[in-house]
Amino acid sequence: CKKIDHIIDKNFKDPVIAECGIFLSYPGCNNQNWHRDSEKKDDNGNLFTFSVALDDINEVNGPLQLYNKSHKLPEDKYEMLNLKKEDLFNNKHFKKVSATCQRGDLIAWNSNIIHRGSKNNGNNIRPLFYFSILDNSKIRPKGPTYTLKSKYKGKVNLKEIIV
User: Fold this and answer.
1) CA dihedral defined by 60, 61, 67, 72, rounded to 10 degrees?
2) Pairing mode, if any, of strands 96-98 and 15-25?
3) What is d(CA 122, CA 132) in angstroms, rounded to the nearest whole number?
4) pLDDT on residue 154
5) Exposure b/e, 76-101, CB count within 10 A at least 16 = b
6) Of 41, 72, 143, 157, which has the fewest CB atoms closer than 10 Å, so is most exposed?
7) Other C-beta atoms lying within 10 Å of the C-beta of residue 104
8) What is the pTM of this model?
């Protein structure tokens, strides 16, 4: 878990767990629209999501897809260029990546990266356990579901939870 420690140490002054749950992609599920999980503003706290594959994830059963480095792109860039998100990334600066992996692998992404869950063409549900960590020292960004009830939110020693 040195990679998680590195992400937390580099991006969070006051880390708290903001979300925790299961993502399920059912057979026949369509592609999600390309999106960010939170609004992109400089004074917002960082929010990263970590997911653990509960089964092997391949191109057939609906992997997470993302555009690398798209978290650095300003929120209003699409409107300024009068383009659809897909058109914006048809260039050499961004590469679409599918997060295929094996059961037990960890996937991590910044809430500002442009991503989607892709279509599940398989015969089985594709499950992922996930949790999101928020930098509580800044403004809480709008957009995420913040799935934890308020009585469970708060400061947590993440290094004790993440072994």
Assistant:
1) -170
2) unpaired
3) 27
4) 53
5) eebeeeeeebeebbeeeebebeebbb
6) 157
7) 10
8) 0.78
Residue 9 bridge partners (DSSP)? none
Q: What region, left, alpha or beta, does residue 104 occupy, with left being phi > 0 and alpha being psi -120 to 50 degrees?
A: left
Reported as a single tens digit per residue, the pLDDT across 57-90 is: 999 999 999 888 777 776 665 554 445 556 666 6
Q: What is the distance between the alpha carbons of residues 98 and 7, in angstroms, rounded to a whole number?
A: 21
CA distance 118 to 23: 12
How many other β-carbons are positioned within 10 Å of the β-carbon of residue 34? 19
Torsion angle of the four alpha carbons 64, 143, 147, 153, in this order, in degrees rounded to the nearest 10 = 120
pLDDT of residue 47: 87
Interval 130-137 mean pLDDT: 86
Single-letter amino acid, residue 84 = K
| pLDDT over 50 (residue 99) | yes
